[in-house]
Amino acid sequence: MADQCRIVVFASGNGSNFQALIDAIAKDQIPNSKIIRLIVNRGKAYATQRAEKAGIPWEYFNLISNGFQAKGEKDPVRIQESRDKYDAALADKLLNGDYRPDLVVLAGWMYVFGKPFLDPLEAAGIKIINLHPALPGKYDGAGAIERAYEDFKAGKLENNKTGIMVHYVIAQVDRGEPILTREIEVHEGEDLHQLEERIHSHEHQLLVEATAKVVQEIIAQRAAR
Q1: Which of 3, 131, 150, 156 is paired with 68 by a 20 to 30 Å CA distance?
Q2: Radius of gyration over alpha carbons of the chain, in Å?
Q3: Phi, psi at 89, each rounded to 5°
Q4: Taking the mean position of all CA atoms in its chain, how far away is CA 207?
Q5: What does DSSP assign to residue 187?
């Protein structure tokens, strides 16, 4: 279909959120859309097997393996230079390769993009969204569930609730405009693993709903031109 929204998914691990998107598109829960490529930055990411099963092309592109950063590099200036070059190369792949997307979905992508990736995509009008296991303005970055759980145990978690959100990606980590959020209450007596499992059980549906919402907006904007 000419009016399909072309999606590129980035993942680093198991790919269960990626699978949720594959299944939702197959069931028409994300109408008028197609995943055209998966990009992984870990060679053993199980997400690649999910892509092969679904007939989706995938690519491995890694900061170290692809020669951007020396293994064991400690110098912060060189590390930043390496990341900037990697980010710029990935942006170039998306913008000038044979799989230019309308939407990028970060689905368990364990790497923080900087402006050399974000700015060219923004200039091209390509939206980037991310799933984060916390509510807006709370527990930015890694270890969000663990930090919320520690606050709960210390009696400092507001209303005993944490949550999840899907948001637009900007340079400030996990501070982009929220698309959809969901509160999740922490239960007395549950351990960290139980809380993590309960939070993950909500992530797939929220990501699907948010992706469908953004796809609908992209297609509506295209039709209005």
Answers
A1: 131
A2: 18
A3: -65, -40
A4: 9
A5: P
